[in-house]
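Before the break, one more example. Copy the sequence into your notebook; we will annotate it together after we see the structure.
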Amino acid sequence: MITQIQLTESLSDLAAQVLSGRQLTPQEALELLAVPDDQLLELLNAAFLIRRHYYGKQVKLNYLVNAKSGLCPEDCKYCSQAKGATSTIEKYSLLSSDEMVARAEHAVRNGASTCCLVISGRGPSKREVQTVADATREIKQRWPGLKICACLGILQDGQADQLRAAGVDRYNHNLNTAEDHYQEICSTHTYKQRVETVQAAKTAGISPCSGLIVGMQETPTQLVSALFALRDVQADSIPINFLVPIVGTALAATAHPLTPQYCLKVLCVARFVCPTVEIRCSAGREKHLRTLQPLSLYPANSWFVSDYLTTPGQAEEMDHQMIRDAGFEIEAIPEHLSFPDGAACVSSTACCGGSE
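Here is what the structure looks like once it is written out:
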């Protein structure tokens, strides 16, 4: 068991044990989360030993397409698109498949190797699944190496199979928080339904993506419980979101304050608990990590770039520069990706596998 007085060697030894197959206990994870701020660099170094073993210094970039905004009947307290939220956001129905394809092209031009197609709502209609499937087929035809992650809500019977047949690589449905805290966050669907959707995607042969939101009044024990639940559902990718308290949402006035140091500790604990999976440093990165954003790459191996669903990110060029300045490399886009007009990717040549 770790104590707060242990130093670099002990944390590094723990990382080595994790690489040898030992699984952390919840109590050990809690103790890592409570490491004093003046030992944060030691914790980051230990987490990096695990991250480097499985992912080297590669950084996967993900680009999010908000394919349907607002108009949601669910009452998730963190969300500006939820029923009851008074946030000022753009609202529109489902984009056409052609519009989704155009957004995917923007993803490729900006160095992303995964494009996430996201719609608001409890779950997709038959028409919505069909439109996403049509868009996925066209995207795969143009850019076969671009991975597609769909995030459409709670799936009905057969919908996961339909998406898989169209070429969807990954399905995202976040658990968001611990099971015993979920009723404080949402009342219109259950934690169990979220778990079942993750399992349905996995059963259909789609890579399951599921994560959490930090800062929703959860206790440290509940945060750790959520991370272990994500390990148990065998998520291949875990987005770690840091709550952005958007005006007009139910949690805007009561959200837990987050420091850059705490956010980095959460990412490190996620790496220790789920050593082999993709850890995505996601929404809230810019707001809460601020100037320490590059340090998130020591435990995490994936970033979202550009904007999120209803909140802005930062310029892709700044993300690329931060990654290079920290000594990491953007995951190369497959060389066979091309553009109909012959234009080149606007990102640095380094992100496409070349050299500066």
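Confidence is low (pLDDT under 50) at residues 338-356. The first helix runs from residue 8 to 19. Try to locate both features in your own notes.
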